[in-house]
Amino acid sequence: MTKAIVSQIDLGFAKFEGLMLPDGSYAIAVPQIADLIGLDRNQASRGIKRLLDNEFNPTKSTTEYTKAAVNIVDLITFRKIIRALDRQGNPIATALVDAFFEESVERRYDTAFGKKVTESERNQILAQRMKRLIARRGWTDILQERHIECYGTKPTPKQFRDWTVRVNQVLFSKTHFKCDRDNMQAEEQSIIETFEKMAVRRAGQNPKEEPTILLELALDTF
Q1: How far apart are CA 81 and CA 85, in angstroms?
Q2: CA end-to-end distance (rounded Å), the chain
Q3: 79: pLDDT confidence band, cut at 50, 70 and 90?
Q4: CATH topology of domain 2-96
């Protein structure tokens, strides 16, 4: 059984314990993946095995700080897990895929043009993206759950688009931000975050209203 060295990995919005094995390769423990993506630790290994069509063969490792062995995977498998979750529509996984791709390309551009960007600055960018994601999930999840309660089905992608366009038109007099909330200005971001909190509050105050009305109740505040 291998024994791993532990070091904290900082993603800006979250931190987890990264592992370096005796051969110098890197790994991540399955419980750390669960915490990062929002999975149940107790069901994480089973869930990942189903996700990867049973092509999941974790190894066991202790660390320099613990005696209890845990399931670990190499970074290639970690990447496969994130990609598979992204394909399933997991919003955190999708945000990570987008953020890591953009950062990887940006790093190469920065190197080519001699631009200096600190790790702290990169972490701030990723943290802000995840903050936007989590805030948006608050009200979109409520709309989805309410739609299921009222009609027995999930909203269609068109319904989600229509709701988003409606919010953008009322709050900003535009239909979209070129599909990227990073294009928002600081003041616009503050407004949308306030709206998202209000949408969650209105849902709690109106437990029987259907989703479109909930949306309008939140927009009426503005």
Answers
A1: 6
A2: 59
A3: very high
A4: Mlu1-box Binding Protein; DNA-binding Domain (3.10.260)
